[in-house]
Amino acid sequence: MAIVIETGFRRHETKRATASVMSQFRHAAGICTVVGSFTFLFALVIGLIQ
Predict the structure, then answer these.
(1) How far apart are CA 18 and CA 25, in angstroms?
(2) How confident is the model over 5-34, as pLDDT tens digits?
């Protein structure tokens, strides 16, 4: 009985860890998108000034 509970717990932890990694990946992708957009706009403005 203890083994069944233990493996169930590990499976649950793995799912939670995977969800956490996916959440962090989405967050990082969002930050990269925002930074990329600002970088592009900044380069565009500098190009227009020169």
Answers:
(1) 10
(2) 555 555 555 666 677 888 888 889 999 999
Please give the Cα distance from 23 to 13 (Å, whole number). 15
pLDDT for 3 equals 53
Dist CA 5 CA 20 (whole Å)? 22
CA 41, chain centre distance (Å): 24
Q: Which residues of 20-36 are buried (b: 16+ CB within 10 A; e: fewer)?
A: eeeeeeeeeeeeeeeee
